[in-house]
Amino acid sequence: MGSARAAAKAAPRVVVIGGGFAGASCARLIKNEDRDISVTLVEANSTYIACPFSNAVVAGLRELDRQKFGYDRVRADGIDVVHRKATAVDAKQRSVVLDDGKRLAYDRLVVAPGVDLRFDAIPGYNEAAAEAMPHAWKAGEQTLLLRRQLEAMKDGGVVVMSAPANPFRCPPGPYERASLIAHYLKTHKPRSKLILLDAKDAFSKQKLFEAAWKELYPGMIEWVSLSFGGQVTRVEAATRTFVTEFGTHRADVANVIPPQRAGALATAAGVADQTGWCPVDPVTFESKLQPGVHVLGDAIIAGGMPKSAFAANSQARVCAVAVVDLLRERTPASPKLINTCYSLVAPDYGISIAGVYQPANGLLTDVQGAGGVSPMDAPKSVRAQEATYAEAWFKTITRGVFG
Amino acid sequence: MSAPVRMLIAVTLVAAPALTMAASPPGAASCLGCHTVNAGDNPVPPIGALSAEQIVSAMQAFRSGSRPATVMDRVAKGFSDEEIKAIAQWYASAKAK
């Protein structure tokens, strides 16, 4: 132990697992804070495909290439990028086990595993069923599959989506997707309809979405809440059928957004609790279950903070400084974090939700009086401005993380 | 790929270092979720272009509602006068380095 500490002082080693908005960002920020820290980023894929704006890809408004990012700049910062899968974490030995059997020793580990889609949650919905009823909740081939199915659908068809109960990645995401699909239908297949089956009775930016649907897509989107039979109890992939407690819906195009949990690595690392998500200290993002392991992004129980790319990036900034402070034996200061999530209801119609958070009672808690959603009565010019800001945010954040 | 071309790419890949955030006041890091430090092709104003006084007066105006905003009015309400001042002074001194 004594020699390990001495070694840590000489050249501290940080391993970051997961190269998304939280992980890649945190790796670079740690290196930027202190170039004497050795930083290794473990990420299975050599290309990252970003989820924000992938609903625009589904709706044919954007190409998937614009969602793709590589790790050349991360490497150029002096970070060792290892494209392997991490299979286990040995918290006692402080090492990460890779799928080729190699081990990476660390003084501090940062885990940003994102979410896993639960293929055990809705009877009939497994990975094979996702070929007929795409989830498109991880951007990539699934995004394109859903888009192709929409393109192949006849005018007058019925699109059925299902949205899970909280918590899940990108709370306004299903409703943005419904909006942009409706935009596609209105433009190309105006006799078609979209039914959104929801496992809850309320959702993010609900009043704004519903007002915009009424204005832009009258009669096109039918939202079925939990109380009115929105809970999907089973699906039949072969016939693209959703079964609810109240009846069945047969779809021409079916999109199942299944319940989720922290990425599998969280369990392997021992940082997920019985809820499937990861409790963390709100000052340092250190796991409440495994000392020396920090957890970021969609995988964590972040109190008031939603599972968004913005939040993940915001957390990475705080965590990076905290990790360096802890390695240098300084006490991390209590942080203040921001989240802003934009949703597009149409290409030139953006709405947002914002929040400011600080640690309270062991969680990240909303600062009272701050945050909230775009005003209900805003003119079209403000909606257009928010759509522009949404695009600007994507540019800034992806440049910061990958550029 | 020829060696000189490869080297050129390697050289252009070295990005300008970002600000270091050690000992920055609470909330300062979060500004960079949307704002860049230096000017770029972006409708969101870069923080580095603003003096401490400009940041303080803008945040106070956003918070009181006297300056129209899309999202900054909602964000500014989460920060006290002291916090705003600390963030503003930190950015002003950080860019002066």
- Count of helix runs of chain B: 5
- Strand pairing plus helix content of chain B: what structural class? mainly alpha
Compute the number of strand runs of chain B.
0
User: Residue-averaged pLDDT of chain A, rounded?
Assistant: 96
- Strand/helix succession of chain B: HHHHH
Outline of chain B: globular
From the alpha carbons, calculate the radius of gyration of chain B and give it in angstroms. 17 Å
What is the radius of gyration of chain A computed over CA atoms, rounded to a whole number of angstroms? 22 Å
Share in β-strands of chain B? under 5%
Could you tell me how far the N terminus lies from the C terminus of chain B, measured between alpha carbons in angstroms? 39 Å
Low-pLDDT ranges of chain A: none
Oligomer: heterodimer
> Helix share of residues of chain B?
40-55%
Q: Which residues of chain B form runs of ≥5 with pLDDT under 50?
A: 1-15
Brief summary:
The complex is a heterodimer of chains A (403) and B (97). Chain A is α/β, with parallel strands linked by helices and 403 residues long.
Give a verbal description of the structure.
The complex is a heterodimer of chains A (about 400) and B (about 100). Chain A is α/β, with parallel strands linked by helices and about 400 residues long. In chain A, about 30% of the residues lie in helices and about 25% in strands. Chain A has 11 helices and 25 strands. A 5-stranded parallel β-sheet of chain A has the order 5-2-1-9-20, covered by helices on one side. In chain A, strands 13-12-11-17 form a 4-stranded parallel β-sheet, covered by helices on one side. In chain A, helix 2 runs parallel beside helix 10 (about 310-325). The longest helix of chain A is centred in the C-terminal third of the chain and has 23 residues, at about 380-400. With about 100 residues, chain B is mostly helical. Helices cover about 50% and strands about 0% of the residues of chain B. Chain B is built from 5 helices and no strands. Chain B has helices spanning about 5-10, 30, 50-65, 70-75, 80-95. The relative contact order of chain B is 0.15. The interface between A and B is large, with 48 and 33 residues.
